[in-house]
UniProtKB/TrEMBL annotation:
InterPro entries, A to Z: Cell_wall_metabolism_enzyme, Dup_hybrid_motif, M23ase_b-sheet_dom
Source taxonomy: unclassified sequences, metagenomes, ecological metagenomes
Protein name: M23ase beta-sheet core domain-containing protein
Transmembrane found in the keyword field: yes
Transmembrane regions: 27-51
Domain M23ase beta-sheet core: 205-299
Any one GO molecular function term: metalloendopeptidase activity
Keyword hit for Repeat: no
The entry's keywords: Membrane, Transmembrane, Transmembrane helix
Length: 309
């Protein structure tokens, strides 16, 4: 093979001698290969350094995110504990409301409602399990606690709704139950199955009480209700009857003047009429009856203080 050479002429300036260098082709090839390998190595080192720096930056970012995630998990645990305390307070209030409503308390085991079933996810199913099983377990525990709290809150909501409905019913019942003296007077005749009638001199039932009072004394409704009758009634004279609902009805007889009409709504203590002696009566007085479920009851049992002035 012919041995070729590369000749390089170096001219430094006018008047200076020209220098000549001769290099074989093989040396030039070796030099080019060396420079190429060196360049490749430098580039590779730069790429590796860039990749390592990016990885370190990413690791630092992931560590920061993990710290933030851990802090958020702790915050969720604290909030779950606070909510549990609030729910416990609601349980105590619910017991009081149920007692006022005449309902029995809910058993403690029912309040400790369980959470489970096919829809409940295990911590191992979390996306974090492979990378951070500890955090996955913590989040799973928080999710379980929150689900239990949700169930307890739903149970409390149902219980409070029931208690509220019963209280509203009880309130309406109390408002409709005869409970006051309908007129200021003296008890002159009591409730009896057989009383000697002052006019007929016969033993007849007396399904109410008589309150002797001055003519014109106001007669008040014993409870909330609707006037079902207002007018003249044989034997009773001018009479007012009030339907209170829940099976209660009251009758006020022998009045001298009526202030209400049929269908009128009245409140407890509202004036209905004035005491008189109309009908079969010998003197001014109020004949007062209380009927429950179509049966006459002793009105004295429906006066809260139990005292006739």
């Amino acid at each position: 093979m012919e041995n070729r050479e590369w000749t390089f002429l170096c001219i430094s300036g006018v008047g200076n001698p020209v220098r000549q260098y001769s290099v074989s082709t093989r040396v030039v090839s070796y030099a080019a290969s060396f420079i190429s390998a060196l360049t490749t190595s430098v580039v590779a080192l730069l790429v590796m350094a860039a990749v390592e720096g990016s990885a370190r930056y990413e690791i630092r970012g992931l560590r920061s995110e993990k710290i933030l995630l851990s802090q958020e998990v702790l915050d969720l645990q604290e909030k779950a504990s606070e909510i549990e305390g609030l729910v416990d307070g609601l349980v105590e209030n619910d017991e009081r409301y149920r007692l006022l409503a005449g309902l029995g308390p809910i058993h403690e085991e029912i309040y400790e409602v369980g959470v489970g079933g096919p829809g409940t996810l295990a911590p191992i199913s979390s996306l974090l399990w492979d990378t951070d099983p500890t955090t996955a377990k913590t989040i799973g525990a928080i999710d379980y606690d929150l689900s239990a709290l949700k169930r307890r809150a739903e149970l409390l909501s149902t219980s409070l709704t029931e208690a509220t409905g019963r209280l509203e019913t009880n309130r309406a019942l109390l408002e409709s139950t005869p409970s006051i003296i309908p007129a200021a007077g003296l008890l002159s005749s009591g409730f009896s199955q057989a009383r000697l009638h002052p006019l007929s001199n016969e033993a007849l039932p007396h399904p109410g009480i008589d309150l002797s009072a001055v003519g014109g004394t106001p007669i008040f409704s014993a409870a909330k209700g609707v006037v079902s009758y207002a007018g003249w009634k044989p034997g009773y004279g001018y009479t007012v009857e009030v339907d209170h609902g829940f099976g209660y009805m009251t009758r006020y007889a022998h009045a001298s003047k009526l202030f209400v009409i049929r269908g009128q709504k009245v409140k407890r203590g509202e004036s209905l009429a004035e005491v008189g002696k109309t009908g079969m009566a010998t003197a001014n007085h109020l004949h007062y009856e209380v009927w429950v479920g179509g049966e006459a009851k002793n009105p004295l049992n429906y006066i809260l203080n139990g005292v006739i002035p």
